[in-house]
Design brief:
With about 210 residues, the protein is of the alpha+beta class. The protein has helices at about 5-15, 20-30, 50-60, 65-75, 90; strands spanning about 80-85, 95-100, 105, 110-115, 125-130, 145, 155-160, 165-175, 180-185, 190-195, 200-210. The strands form two sheets. The chain has a nine-stranded mixed β-sheet. It has a two-stranded antiparallel ribbon with strand order 2-3.
């Protein structure tokens, strides 16, 4: 008999296999982005099961045969190490991070999680692109992983949070002791200059899913 935990673990594994968060998987299947969020899996009174329609949708969206999904249900393989994931909108909220120095630490009460596919920095976290503003480089639904331990260098694609709470994804054009210059990813806008005091954190984009 299949258990509630096994079904949800299989959905998490399917998302992991495709380099997605559970919400990214839901979006890929044209479902509500919150359909597979951990908070939706149980209430105070009862466990909530995914519908057959939602399972069919994610299998179609990922081209996963039913027998492979069943194998994910019964597999005893442990999920990979997970890292926090915030959407850009979440990351801009006032209390999105429980700390910002010496490194940014996402607030666990609001973030999702995904398997760590590449980087090994334990302080890594990810941002899910929830806007079309960065397409085609990072289309809506893409996930970028930020690694605070990686030194940011000229030419790197970076994500940063300003002192005002804005989340920006740019290319680092120039770096000085007091100021940095940023370019748009597509290079189709004038460079922006920010002082160090205007930046809460800035990290290199180590890896990205599409």
């Amino acid at each position: 008999m299949l258990t509630h935990e096994e079904i949800w673990r299989a959905i998490d594994r399917l998302a992991e296999r495709n380099g997605l968060t559970p919400s990214g998987l839901a979006r890929k299947a044209q479902l509500s982005p919150t359909a597979f969020n951990p908070s939706k899996r149980a209430s105070a009174k009862r466990k909530r099961w995914p519908s057959t329609e939602s399972i069919a949708a994610i299998l179609t969206a990922t081209a996963c045969p039913l027998e492979e999904f069943i194998a994910l249900i019964t597999s005893k393989e442990k999920l990979k190490t997970k890292i926090p994931v915030l959407t850009l909108a979440q990351a801009a909220r006032p209390h999105a991070f429980s700390a910002v120095q010496p490194v940014a630490v996402p607030n666990e009460t609001i973030c999702d999680h995904m398997a760590l596919p590449a980087a090994q920095d334990p302080a890594c976290f990810a941002l899910e692109i929830d806007t079309a503003a960065y397409a085609p480089v990072y289309p809506e639904g893409a996930v970028v992983i930020l690694c605070p331990s990686e030194k940011v260098r000229r030419g790197d694609r970076v994500a940063l949070r300003t002192a005002q709470g804005d989340i920006l994804i740019r290319r680092l054009s120039r770096e000085g002791a007091q100021k940095i210059e940023l370019s748009s990813l597509a290079g189709d806008a004038p460079p922006e200059t920010l002082t160090r005091s205007e930046i809460q954190w800035i990290y290199k984009i180590q890896w990205a899913s599409q």
